[in-house]
Amino acid sequence: MPNKNSHAEHVPQRTCVVCRARKEAGELLSFFVLPQGLVFDPRRRIQRRRNYVCPDPECLVGLDKWKLKYMKRKFGLRGAASFSQAGQK
Ligand SMILES: [Zn+2]
Fold first, then answer.
1. The pTM is what?
2. 4 CA from centroid of ligand 1 (Å)
3. In the predicted model, is pLDDT for residue 17 greater than 50?
4. I need a surface site. Which of 25, 38, 42, 81 has the fewest CB within 10 A?
5. How far is ligand 1, taken at its centre, from the CA of residue 48, in Å?
6. How far is the CA of 18 from the centre of ligand 1 (A)?
7. Backbone angles phi, psi at 50, to 5 degrees
8. What separation in Å is there between the alpha carbon of 55 and the centre of ligand 1?
9. Which residues have CB atoms below 5 A from the ion given as ligand 1?
10. Domains of the chain listed by start with CATH number
11. Distance CA 67, CA 82 (A)
Protein backbone atom coordinates (compact mmCIF):
# COMPACT_ATOMS: atom_id res chain seq x y z
CA MET A 1 0.00 0.00 0.00
CA PRO A 2 1.67 3.24 -1.05
CA ASN A 3 1.65 5.72 1.76
CA LYS A 4 4.08 8.50 1.08
CA ASN A 5 4.11 11.24 3.63
CA SER A 6 0.40 11.22 4.28
CA HIS A 7 0.67 14.17 6.65
CA ALA A 8 1.76 16.55 3.92
CA GLU A 9 -1.03 15.41 1.64
CA HIS A 10 -3.74 15.60 4.18
CA VAL A 11 -6.55 17.78 2.92
CA PRO A 12 -8.99 18.95 5.54
CA GLN A 13 -12.51 17.82 4.87
CA ARG A 14 -15.54 19.80 5.84
CA THR A 15 -19.21 19.01 5.84
CA CYS A 16 -21.83 21.09 4.08
CA VAL A 17 -24.44 22.04 6.68
CA VAL A 18 -27.26 21.64 4.15
CA CYS A 19 -26.61 18.42 2.22
CA ARG A 20 -24.06 16.94 4.66
CA ALA A 21 -21.64 16.16 1.84
CA ARG A 22 -18.00 15.98 2.84
CA LYS A 23 -15.68 17.94 0.59
CA GLU A 24 -12.34 19.62 0.72
CA ALA A 25 -12.52 22.84 2.68
CA GLY A 26 -11.42 24.80 -0.38
CA GLU A 27 -14.46 23.63 -2.33
CA LEU A 28 -16.92 24.93 0.21
CA LEU A 29 -17.89 28.42 1.25
CA SER A 30 -17.11 29.17 4.85
CA PHE A 31 -19.28 31.42 6.93
CA PHE A 32 -20.24 32.26 10.49
CA VAL A 33 -23.56 32.86 12.04
CA LEU A 34 -23.86 36.09 13.96
CA PRO A 35 -26.99 37.49 15.59
CA GLN A 36 -27.15 39.84 12.59
CA GLY A 37 -27.17 36.99 10.10
CA LEU A 38 -24.72 34.98 8.04
CA VAL A 39 -21.28 36.35 7.32
CA PHE A 40 -19.23 34.81 4.55
CA ASP A 41 -15.51 34.93 5.02
CA PRO A 42 -13.84 33.93 1.76
CA ARG A 43 -10.43 35.06 2.95
CA ARG A 44 -10.67 32.99 6.12
CA ARG A 45 -9.27 35.79 8.21
CA ILE A 46 -11.61 35.67 11.14
CA GLN A 47 -10.76 33.23 13.89
CA ARG A 48 -14.09 31.83 14.77
CA ARG A 49 -15.96 28.61 14.51
CA ARG A 50 -16.97 28.26 10.91
CA ASN A 51 -19.68 26.49 9.09
CA TYR A 52 -19.43 25.35 5.52
CA VAL A 53 -21.83 25.14 2.62
CA CYS A 54 -21.47 24.01 -0.99
CA PRO A 55 -21.40 26.87 -3.49
CA ASP A 56 -24.36 25.25 -5.25
CA PRO A 57 -27.64 27.10 -5.75
CA GLU A 58 -29.54 24.24 -4.10
CA CYS A 59 -27.47 24.33 -0.98
CA LEU A 60 -27.53 28.12 -0.82
CA VAL A 61 -31.31 28.02 -0.96
CA GLY A 62 -31.36 25.38 1.76
CA LEU A 63 -29.00 27.51 3.79
CA ASP A 64 -31.74 30.00 4.48
CA LYS A 65 -33.80 27.34 6.24
CA TRP A 66 -30.78 26.02 8.01
CA LYS A 67 -30.00 29.51 9.25
CA LEU A 68 -33.42 29.91 10.81
CA LYS A 69 -33.16 26.59 12.60
CA TYR A 70 -29.67 27.37 13.75
CA MET A 71 -30.65 30.78 15.05
CA LYS A 72 -33.59 29.39 16.93
CA ARG A 73 -31.29 26.93 18.59
CA LYS A 74 -28.57 29.40 19.29
CA PHE A 75 -30.28 32.68 19.91
CA GLY A 76 -33.80 31.62 20.78
CA LEU A 77 -37.11 32.10 19.04
CA ARG A 78 -37.13 35.84 19.45
CA GLY A 79 -33.85 36.24 17.62
CA ALA A 80 -34.87 33.95 14.78
CA ALA A 81 -38.19 35.69 14.29
CA SER A 82 -36.60 39.04 13.61
CA PHE A 83 -34.54 37.54 10.79
CA SER A 84 -37.21 35.52 9.06
CA GLN A 85 -38.25 37.17 5.86
CA ALA A 86 -41.75 38.32 5.10
CA GLY A 87 -43.59 35.82 2.98
CA GLN A 88 -41.51 32.89 4.12
CA LYS A 89 -43.44 29.67 4.57
ZN1 LIG B 1 -24.21 21.05 0.14
1. 0.69
2. 31
3. yes
4. 42
5. 21
6. 5
7. -105, 160
8. 7
9. 16, 18-19, 54, 59
10. 10-81 (3.30.1230.10)
11. 12
